[in-house]
Amino acid sequence: MIKFNEPFYTGNEISHIQALMATKKLQGSCDENKSTDYLKQIMQSEEVFLVHSCTAALEIAALALDIKPGDEVIMPSYTYVSTANAFVLRGAKIIFVDVDEKTMNIDLVEVEKAITPQTKVIVPVHYGGVSCDMAALLVLANKHDIVIVEDAAQALFSKYQTQYLGTIGHLGCVSLHETKNITAGGEGGILFVNDKKLVNKIKMIVEKGTNRSEFLSGRINKYTWQTVGSSYLMSQLNAGFFMAQIEGAHDITKRRTAIFKSYLKGLADLIDNKRIETLEIPAYNEANGHLFYIKTRDESERNQLKNFLKSKHIESTSHYEPLHSSVAGKKYGTYVGTDRVTSKDSKRLLRLPLHMHLSNADVEEVIMRVKEFYDDV
Ligand SMILES: *Cc1c(COP(=O)(O)O)cnc(C)c1O
Prior knowledge:
This protein has 15 helices and 14 strands. By secondary structure, the protein is α/β, with parallel strands linked by helices. It has an 8-stranded mixed sheet with strand order 1-9-8-5-4-2-3-13, sandwiched between helices. α1 packs across α9 and α3 packs parallel to α4. Bound molecules: pyridoxal-5'-phosphate.
């Protein structure tokens, strides 16, 4: 069986966890450690918090920005539920818009049309680690005084021009879930705080709304409740696991990008002949090989291909159901503008296996089977 995804271990996870256990400090902390130090340095972010998921990072963002009932948050309908939930939890109304068919990223023309005086936040989702057009988005946001929270869940180590994704908007949220390129041992997330003004508040939000981090650093002798917060910090055991993965990050990105390119090359004829479509990586983007997908003619062809691959022991999977068509999406959000791409393309999108345990022969096998399917069809 060629699996769709399998977590990868660099081999140093246990030794890092043991070293942290020896310190007898297992609780999460806002203090810098080796991995946040490294991330801050190479990625140029004001402050980096390790948290227990990207979902948590998004929730912290909504709390830090004081999102209230009546506020509107614009995001693509084609995204994971956490992008919306974080803001719905604060009472906001979600404004879903269409995506660009080349990248499945938020369509900026639709964003502009959806902006109202109530718009507080725009959430670009860098789907598959492929960057949204951040320069154009920032121009739009600055013009209307709107905050950008990047959902960079899949985008760790991808770049827009020379800048890392997650470090460009006011806040950036990354996932370290086991299905992403790099994991903190199953669950984990990173919050990049790029707006200096938000740092102190976030230090309290992640410590249950208290000024405990000031207490731990010895600046005050008692900590108290200051603001609305929750328990968001990553356990040190997960941070240890993450450290080992960070050490392997360069090789992981390199290998995944190579697999991505093999798929693109192997399927070039089918793409050129318009039998299938795939994503187009914009010139401004350096991607991280998070996922590779193709788009079939329609849903029924997609399902046939999926079943065919399954019969050849290859796993492949569809992705998001558009949020605006879901039960909660209808209740907490509205779709604004036309639905040219979202519903149609989510039904014909199929993700192919992409992970560190794939051999070159596995990749060739997947390519060969996809081609076989199309010669037969
Ligand atoms: C995976 C993912 C999330 C959620 O990440 P968790 O770390 O599992 O909370 C949010 N948004 C997007 C786009 C994702 O792909």
